[in-house]
Amino acid sequence: MTDATQPRPDRVVLMNPGPVMTDDRVRTALSGPDLCHREPEFSELLTRVRHKTTLAVGGDERHTSVILTGSGTSAVEAAISSAVPDGGGLLVVDNGHYGERFQHIAAAHGIRTHRLGLGWATPVDPAAVAAALAADPGLTHMGLVHHETSSGMLNDVSALTRIAHEHGRTVILDAVSSVGAERLSLAEDGVDWLAGSANKCLEGAPGLAFVSTSRTAFEGLAAAPRRGYYLDLHRHYTAQEKAVAPAFTPGIPAYYAFEAALDLALAEGSVARHARYTALALQLRAGLEEIGLELLLQPAHRAASLTAVSLPEGMAFGELHRGLRAEGFVIYSAQEQLAQDWFRLSTMGRMTAEDVDRFLAALSGLMRDGA
Length: 371
Hints:
Aspartate Aminotransferase, domain 2; 7-stranded mixed beta sheet; 3-stranded antiparallel beta sheet; 40% helix
């Protein structure tokens, strides 16, 4: 580790799970020219971003993507409210805060659900999922979070999607915190509806989200219920695919940045980015354990981009946050039932091994000073 007495770094290292530190080329792209969204130049940009997004999520010629101006949650809500038919139902696989959010979104739209509450930081039992689907044929869809960032839990998308399909159900996947970092393929994993964000592990700027699925599924929304207006996926798909224009005024600077980020992601490749994120996470986790802190999950269940770690003995999160912020690091609190004893550290974005070393030195110094 580097010496904690070195001068404070010039940049602030974001260890929160989005927004993330971005490449200089992404930040530069934000200052692109002013542009009317009804002009051909934006139509061309929209078409490129949709295509590159589909490639980034592992889609093929059967698939496409719709881009939304909003946070990742807007994409999840758009998928749930648009895809579940009248008279349908949603099995919510809930092992954390964002699984619980599936439940709240469905309830807001009057969609019937069965909530398979497994408990926070609890691995999903495939047999329980199969039993829940078998017991209620009216559950037409299954909602699943890939990376449950409340705990850092990575759920097995491929295995659980296979179970859903064996029971004739459609999968809606919250991949907001996983796409770009984890092994995930819309085509190979058989995911039916995938909701993601331009930020987080795709390393774009905040402000854009997307839903990816087959062209056939998007076309099928013509007969689906209209539960909302702004988040009606059929409205967005029709505008973007047929008119090659946005349904509403988009966040144009975020599009410039997202295209730059997608170019970087596609050039790096999903395997290499997963390896980069994994190496940083392993470096961080080894250092945390070396200074005596406990990690929440067993190694087999940990995502590549976030670590839930115990608070140092005798130190509240607010004190820890202030001390590390003064050293140039932003950390993230745990949520709800985990907040008293744990905090979270992301290794998303353009973080480096040197950043991790400096962080561990700063944290170790604070723990010594507080002892």
